[in-house]
Amino acid sequence: MRERTTARVDRIETFLVAPRWILVRVTTDDGAHGWGEAIVPKRVRAVVGAVEDMAENLLGTPAGHISDMTWRMRNGAFFRGGPILATAAAAIEQALWDLAGHRLAAPVHDLFGGPVRTSVRAYAWVGGDRPRDVVAHVQARQGQGFDMVKMNATEELDLIDRPAHVDAVVERVAAIRDAVGTEIDVALDFHGRVHRAMARTLLRELDGYRLAWIEEPLPPGHEDAYGQVFSNDRSTPIATGERLTSRWNVRRVLEERVVDVLQPDVSLTGIAELVAIARQAEAYDVAVAPHCPNGPVSLAASLQVASASVNVPVLEQSVGLHYHEGYAGLPRGELFDYLSDPGPLRTDDGRFAVPGGAGLGVEVDAEAVAASPPWSLHDPQWRLEDGRNAEW
Question: Any idea where the Mandelate racemase/muconate lactonizing enzyme C-terminal domain is (predicted)?
Answer without folding.
Answer: 131-239
